[in-house]
Amino acid sequence: MAYQRLYEDEDLEKKIYDIVLENNDYTDTLRINNHYDFHYFLSPFRHDLFIWYPFKKEGSLLEIGAGYGQLTSLFTQKVNRVVAIEDSQSKCNIISKRAEDSTVLLSDFDDIKLEEKFDYIVLCNVFEYAKSFFESENPYQDYLNYLKKFLKDDGVILIALSNRLGLKYFAGFREEHSNQFFNGINGYENEDHAQTFSKTELEDIIKSAGFSNYKFFYPYPNHEFPEVINTDKFINEIPFTGVNKYSREKILLFDESTVNLSLSKDNLSQYFANSFLVEIRTTDADYPSDKIDFVKIGADRQEELKVYTTIWSDGKVSKTPISAKANEHIKRMVDGSKYDIGKIRCLDAELKGDSLYYDFIDQKSCEYLILDIIRKNDKEKFFEFIEDLYDALFYNSFESDEYATEEFLKIFKEKSEIKFHCHEKSYLDIILGNMFIIDGKFTIIDYEWIYDFPIPLEYIFYRTFRYHFYSSASFREFTSFEEIFEHFNLDTENLKLYLYLICNIELNELKRKGGDV
Asked: Torsion angle, CA of 416/420/424/425, rounded to 10 degrees?
């Protein structure tokens, strides 16, 4: 039984085929066709849903409903054998072109002619259509049972789909399978094509199909373009406060980030997560993914800087290169962890294989500490806190008007003739979310932006608070740049220069990513 997703049509399919036939770098195409559908089918960020997943390299994988091969090419890099199934020849042709190392099979999803068994079966935006292609009174439960015959004894089914009660739908996003507002929330009235499920509903389906071992992951902001993969352990402790970069039509009823913070305080975020990635296991054994508690994916960078960060259940944190080009970046970070910036220390790190490892810090970051102070409206305590930070940053610094070296100007472009405080080495990214107080010392856990040349500390200090002014309304309402700088007798006339420096960094980064300037 064939089915068609709402956002697929013959004209789009032909365009995708022509694009894929022409090249395998879609940067220019996505710049010109900056629409959700093109990003969905062509963006390399689609890989982020599984780039972190601990697949067995020697394993085999069956991808059902591979679409236009947007994930298939990643799977061929992760496992030894990939079989991709689609129900139209034109889609199969596109998949074969994008993932040449895969075996592509033209087949209905309910009549798969395969004798072999697989380590993994993947359904991304497919399972919710089961009642369209699997004839049964209980299509979702029975389709899971049908898939069992293609699984090895210790195999895994991976299902990615939206949450029927996802916060985005309450906030004003259309339901993507019906293109209606609030359709899923209202129980899919008059909808017999597809449906998604709440967490409890999906758990009931899994259990009724005879599976007792499963794990929920929560991709944020969604499973199409995830930046974070959360789990039940941290979904309420590290709530997502970002935005959807790529989305279809929506109306804005409320701010998702603010509401998600409220939900997290009541331990409810897992029920209103926008998406689920569910790992369904065939045995009661431990699986490698049990050790993963949280993943943050830094794929929206130039190739040499792309890494993902994992929090492990054994109390360690790792940073892993997404591509071989980022290996040197990891090594530089390990080297950078050996230096202090003023009195700000870097947490000890070590290199294991291609990944950097350090200890997980199970306490509030400086961001949460200072937000607690702001919530209490305690100006005195606030300035005591940032006085300590100022003293730590500026400790043992020197004044110089010759900081604008060739390396500095390559990045910042602008300079001033006046003197600023500097260190020989500079740590640019001192944001409070990456900083903790350990044994009375400010301690940084992220050392990606350590430079071997001076950067004015006044600018670094400004950049720290600029980040939090930008991201937190309560911060903006509580104080101002002028108030902070005047407290330390710093010249507020240079605020414009600091903003120019930040803009030049961001423009430089945008150019490297191929964005419009």
From this structure: -80
